[in-house]
Design the sequence.
């Protein structure tokens, strides 16, 4: 039955490999240690350019197929030049991509064929925080809303369960909803 | 003296406009409400493409000078096609860009000329969390380290104070270090 289901449903996710990795890494915790990296160079004003290329995992240095670069800036309404998306929009992009990849992986595992998935995401912020105008206002989002629009060969209940399981296993959902220690130092 | 300092130091940040905004928005909290947005479309497998274009702020709809698009994927070691940076690398990119913009803005306000700023950032993760191999392992980072290398006309103490103040006002630093409510729904 599994074989038939795998032939019928193709979301482009290699679930067999992921299940194999889960089993293998469960027995080899050292290989499960990853370090993700980025290097950011200040350009001018609030504009910076970050490159992502190497990471560590499975016990050794790894390299992406190519280097990914990102321009980040503040918008013109902040008296900046808008040379890139804002830092907080990058965080929303990461959350959307994480949850969407999870939906595809869980759908594959559950033999649910996806036809389309769109996530619209919104983060509210009172910018009196970052401007230092009111110390009672936090700097970050006061809340984030994600709405999924999914066309799949599944019931609404199955689709809701997909999205729920994606949250359960999402790295970025965890990063945003729970605290993480960040150490900043000067070389 | 302020005028002389402003002539001598140019980091490309319009501090006068930011100070004006701080004063104006302190008196007009409604204008300080921003909504940042992203729209993510699933491509195939773990690959998605997100666009960032519009946001809300200063009491009205705003538009970036152009649309910014981001491809996100998982790497080949996750049995994926590596069509883009990973979601968690996007979060690191957001943090690096946020802190770097803050360093430039604070330096300008303190009349410190920057020559170069590089931030190297690393997030550790035990991927047994996202694989569901061990429910005691969290999905997100177990910690994030940022190291700044800054060349500026300033003492080491002044540079350390710049970086510290940038953290104090950073949206993404707050988002990662503190919990935020995320609501996920199905349309």
Sequence:
């Amino acid at each position: 039955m599994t074989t038939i289901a795998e032939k019928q449903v193709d979301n482009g996710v290699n679930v067999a490999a992921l299940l194999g990795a889960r089993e293998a890494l469960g027995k080899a915790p050292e290989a499960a240690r990853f370090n993700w990296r980025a290097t950011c160079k200040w350009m001018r004003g609030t504009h910076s350019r970050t490159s992502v290329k190497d990471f560590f995992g499975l016990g050794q240095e790894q390299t992406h197929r190519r280097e990914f670069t990102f321009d980040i800036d503040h918008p013109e309404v902040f008296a900046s030049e808008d040379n890139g998306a804002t830092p907080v929009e990058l965080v929303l992009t990461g959350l959307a991509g994480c949850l969407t990849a999870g939906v595809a992986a869980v759908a594959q595992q559950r033999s649910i064929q996806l036809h389309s998935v769109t996530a619209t995401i919104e983060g509210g912020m009172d910018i009196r925080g970052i401007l230092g105008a009111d110390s009672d206002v936090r700097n970050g989002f006061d809340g984030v809303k994600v709405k999924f629009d999914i066309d799949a060969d599944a019931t609404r209940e199955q689709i809701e369960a997909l999205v729920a399981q994606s949250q359960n296993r999402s790295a970025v959902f965890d990063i945003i909803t729970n605290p993480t220690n960040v150490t900043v130092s000067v070389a």
